[in-house]
Amino acid sequence: MKQIKSQGFLQRSFSLGNGNLAKACLRDLLLFPVMLQHPDQDNTMQAICFKEPGGPEKLYLGLVPKPEPKDGEVLVKVYATALNRADVLQRKGLYPAPPGASEILGLEAAGVVTGFGPGLRRNYKLGDKVMALLSGGGYAQYVAVPEELLMPVPSHLTLNEAAAIPEAWLTAYQLLHLIAQIKEGESVLIHAGASGVGTAAIQLARLFCAVPLVTAGSPDKLKIAEKLGAAAGFNYKEEDFSDKILQFTQGRGVDVILDCIGGSYWEKNLRSLAVDGRWVLYGVMGGKAVDGDLLGKLLLKRGHILSSLLRSRSLQYKAELVGSFIEQALPHFQSAELSTSLKPIIDTIFNMEDITEAHRHMEANKNTGKIIIKISET
């Protein structure tokens, strides 16, 4: 795990009109090294912003209104957040925030409870360490979160480690447990096995007594995946993974595929899939278009194509998912000594003002596990 020192610059922005992110910035501040200032604790906070879609250079550190918790919400002071591919897509203008969600990037966070809205069951108290699944808003010093989407931080984990859990682990849990309905003894092919979701899915597959197999793009990433419990790993840059899958399964194929690649993998995925297998699509990093006899080949295998996103799900669905995860998976983060222990994998920790470098790091596919952004000092 690497710690990146600050080399960033600060732009300040202000709220205009109805609370949208400001259109005006004091660009002359770019001439000076960043000096993180203490914003008005009652009204404003620092957040990572962008005014128009584009590359990582569009991101800057600005001042925005501090959220006020609404009915059923808890105010959390954010100490750390984590990057997800959805953040990159939203920054590029390809994945807008759902209606009603914060326009600020960030789908997960870890921090401390600092306030409450009305109508809470009060499962948490001031000062509690929590981690949160978000629809947006994690790249900021404070975020208001529906109480149902909070989880307690396991006692032996740091807040940086906790920030690596919500989006990646809940995505992997949803895909395996709710969508694919993985069963004991089944085999599952996990693409991008060294990613945040991939490293979580390997461990969860083992917890569910399934057999995880992975693809990744380097020997080092494959070694880490195998250390986490992958039964085998295949370098997609050097070999046809479908050949290796059929060899490993003695021609049968895998029961489940977790696919974040999409179009460019469709033929190899179908070849790797067992009869009656489930192909779960949750990303299209390799393209959306398919050119060929997908349906005919899928029909011959009686295959199932399933798809899922998490961010756009209803609050009720997310609340039930979080509740199931707290019951079934979270206890396994409590001890590192058990054979079924789960642990978040962190690649690099960046400071808040170095967000552009963090996004470049993700887009270069250099990370193994999660990229963490430190928002506040603990």
UniProtKB/TrEMBL annotation:
Protein name per its UniProtKB record: Enoyl reductase (ER) domain-containing protein
Enoyl reductase (ER) domain mapped to chain residues: 54-373
SMART domains per record: PKS_ER (SM00829)
Keyword Membrane: no
Keyword annotations from UniProtKB, A to Z: NADP, Oxidoreductase
InterPro entries per the UniProt record, alphabetical: ADH-like_C, ADH-like_N, ER, GroES-like_sf, NAD(P)-bd_dom_sf, Quinone_OxRdtase_PIG3
Alphabetical list of Gene3D superfamilies matching this protein: Medium-chain alcohol dehydrogenases, catalytic domain, NAD(P)-binding Rossmann-like Domain
Molecular function GO labels: NADPH binding; quinone binding; quinone reductase (NADPH) activity
Lineage: superkingdom: Eukaryota
Pfam families with a match to the protein in the record: ADH_N, ADH_zinc_N
